[in-house]
């Protein structure tokens, strides 16, 4: 193990424009994988794939800053499958040769699907384990041994403690969405897992954002890692048009219904803060004849997967979710993300809106923001280094004004009751750039602090069940 310093990382930072006409073959991938990619219609590697595949094939440790939607799953799955084909033993009973740790059940299923897809021409066995479902079938599956095990940390530890999984053959560890795992309070579980793994192994760490806690974890876990980054640190996806509509809290669902109908939205993924809030909005939409479904942590796994599938199939027009759905879910052609409530952790904003504008498409993300949320807004704006454009909806001008925010995370104090809107010239009241016009004194900067446990510290409060 090598120490922590950032100086020890060899960094390659590129923008997404660097990789142009490179082929998968030139990255050194073997024929069965090239045939699979051909069949999938993947013509050229994405930037994260172009950068990650060659060093992973060489057995190097890697620390990659890549948003979901950049093709990062294939970025680690392809070289990992190849290494398992080319090197190492035949897998023994209850053993695993590659372990992929992910934060949520949904992501576990999705990453496992990717392994099945990318490994379709290879004789390797993969499987996903996660909590909330019976452990027995998972134990049965592990008996024969697995080349790739995708797991959430809690269930993996249960299996390990019951001797259902052994790590003595482990060659590769992947931490996918490492930041999310810490946000969800998995720091302690991760340490217990790491303690059980052989020291000699390859470790790959993927994270959309890099907090100090993640860097500390990387310092402990990775050996002389190559550091790659394919998007500006903590920046929101550029292909997503983002704006906010100020509104009173109690009128949010009314505004959502109004927008859904008047803008003729085809489909929307809507994020709500609490499970109760999700259920309420789902009910409200259904009462208005809109086909809506919901996913959150209280729903059984099968129900959640079914809701997601119905949404992907276009049967469901509005999928309402807590942040459990914010990361990793791959939903093709998602045109619109609605932040019905702003997220408590600013980084989640980046992940939420990452559900749209994927794989080169453009998307839209609108946030319905009430006065109470101004500090969350300011934290998001600080993190993403932008001030979100405000667009008033004429019939929904809030009584409780959303205080103005300024570049650099400042909030202009003294929220006042709004005057009745003056509709000048009978036109639309888009108030673009109004945040700059305020003459009121600026309040001290609101810091974009996220509550992440220091690595190895106590789990984040209440974060485990979004
Ligand atoms: P990910 O960031 O891994 O969730 O991938 C986002 C989406 O991009 C998935 O739907 C992949 O199937 C797709 N994808 C990944 N790599 C490529 C590629 N090289 N060419 C075209 N599509 C890709």
Automatic annotation (TrEMBL):
Its EC number is 3.6.4.13. Residues 413-422 have a biased composition (Basic residues). This is DEAD-box ATP-dependent RNA helicase RhpA. It is an enzyme of class 3 (hydrolase). Gene3D superfamilies: P-loop containing nucleotide triphosphate hydrolases. It catalyses: ATP + H2O = ADP + phosphate + H(+). Signal peptide: none annotated. One of its GO terms (molecular function) is RNA helicase activity.
